[in-house]
Amino acid sequence: MPGQPAPGQGQFRGEQQGLGVNGARGDFNVPGRPGYIPGGFRENDEVRDYEQVRRDRREFQADGRTYYREPGRVIVQDRNGYLIRHDENERFRELDPRGYRYERRGSDYISFIDRPGGDRIYTVTDDDGRLLRRYRRFSDGREVVIIDNTYGGPPRPIYDDVVVLPPPDIRIPRDRYVVEYDQADPGLVYEALTAPPVVNVDRRYTLDQIRYSPDLRARMRSVDIDTINFDTGSFTVTPDQARRLSVIADAINKAIRANPQEVFLIEGYTDAVGSDIDNLSLSDRRAQSVATVLTQQFQVPPENLTTQGYGEQYLKVNTQGPSRENRRVTVRRITPLLQQGQNQGGGQGQYQDQGAPPPR
């Protein structure tokens, strides 16, 4: 890994317009095409409310598909519906707006924030804004990779990252497979967030494959946080609901202390009211809001969390009307899917000093 990036927030934003670096690797964000943004996402997009998101949304056509760009998000319409990709740095800028720094290095963008104790968290993305790698550099110079999204080969269009698998054969009680957070004791929450897959996982998957493949995610148990129910059209976690996250935050922190490479996916969902695009965008922002609260109020390491929205695709209550139960978030451990064969035990994984590979 080269030396640490110089604090260069915004130093190249205007300089790189028009440079054909890396291409779009299958997406519409290609130099010379309408809507191209170096690095995939603007660094200064600030969203005050969802009406602003709607006003700022733009539609583009490329490769026979329709793309929608809005602040911090790209949505693609595929034959089977819609998929969303977000700015991987947005949550980190929000956590530390003064300390966040980034620079361009070759065809990649490298950002970092400093964490308590002298650790530094790096995020590497490509020119299309795709996450390549996230890792932690300790104060003594050691590095540990949290997420490596590159071993599956060159990035593909997000609609090609869907992995088709048979649904898992669930042989444990339903209330242990999907834990209802409001009714569960802390021990059951911790068990669900440290348990191995419910069926054998025979290889590693990329983070993108996990995000976009429901039957793959279903191989891991989950905790349905039914104490967080967003207002219609809102992605704000109210203070009273934020306080209810303490039990799941304690479980996640305990798991990370046992294994610093644990990764937890926070999934956002909406009810069926409104358009598919609005619901997908709202759900993605809701998941990110919960991840931010977990770090800001309960000191959950942000690098061990990742988020994804699924809109109205998986309704908890089968209704097409307004439903607070459907406006929710779910948390699941995805470490064994990312690191198959390395850390599949129930919270007993050991720290591995892998050394961070150099940016591509």
From TrEMBL:
<feature type="region of interest" description="Disordered">
    <location>
        <begin position="1"/>
        <end position="43"/>
    </location>
</feature>
<protein>
    <submittedName>
        <fullName>Outer membrane protein OmpA-like peptidoglycan-associated protein</fullName>
    </submittedName>
</protein>
<dbReference type="InterPro" id="IPR006665">
    <property type="entry name" value="OmpA-like"/>
</dbReference>
<feature type="domain" description="OmpA-like">
    <location>
        <begin position="217"/>
        <end position="342"/>
    </location>
</feature>
<keyword id="KW-0472">Membrane</keyword>
<dbReference type="Pfam" id="PF00691">
    <property type="entry name" value="OmpA"/>
</dbReference>
<dbReference type="InterPro" id="IPR036737">
    <property type="entry name" value="OmpA-like_sf"/>
</dbReference>
<dbReference type="InterPro" id="IPR050330">
    <property type="entry name" value="Bact_OuterMem_StrucFunc"/>
</dbReference>
<feature type="compositionally biased region" description="Low complexity">
    <location>
        <begin position="350"/>
        <end position="360"/>
    </location>
</feature>
<feature type="region of interest" description="Disordered">
    <location>
        <begin position="337"/>
        <end position="360"/>
    </location>
</feature>
